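Page 37, top half.
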Amino acid sequence: MSLRLATRALPRAQPARTFATTTYRMAAGDTGSPRSAAGGAGGDAFSKREHANEEMEIRRREKEKLEALKKKIADSEAQLSKDRAEAEELHKKQYNDVSLDQVRDVGK
């Protein structure tokens, strides 16, 4: 009988693979830099200009809405004045030329 030495190969120690990962950092205000709050201290010139344009558009719309409301109020006041004059005329016809103001004065 022959003696045989039983051996088996040991697993080789493989170096752990490490990947160097570095992030690309940009300075504040550079084109392509991470955006901060729009219009704030951060952000590049493009985002600041875009924010300013949005603000101008919002103000323009609000101004249009305000002008429309003022026109609506003026129209309502004109209609109210017209209705009061018509009521005065009807009252004069019904009560023989006695105006509403004279009737109000009698009640005091």
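Page 37, bottom half:
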Amino acid sequence: MVRGKTQVKRIENATRRQVTFSKRRSGLLKKAFELSVLCDAEVALIIFSSKGKIYEFASSRYVLYYEFKSKGTL
């Protein structure tokens, strides 16, 4: 059975939106980790929530420190 195309639009219900954000954030962090392990790649991921909270992942410490801190942003 093939799924049809889904329309990407903002979720109006705040509770459903937060649940979806949490699930997708977890999935994205897992994929970033898998990419770093499987491909021996340096990966850095920064996610900002709608409330301004920061979630981050780095495959190694120096990725975030040298790449982002040296530019004066984060």
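Margin note: The chain has a mean pLDDT of 87.
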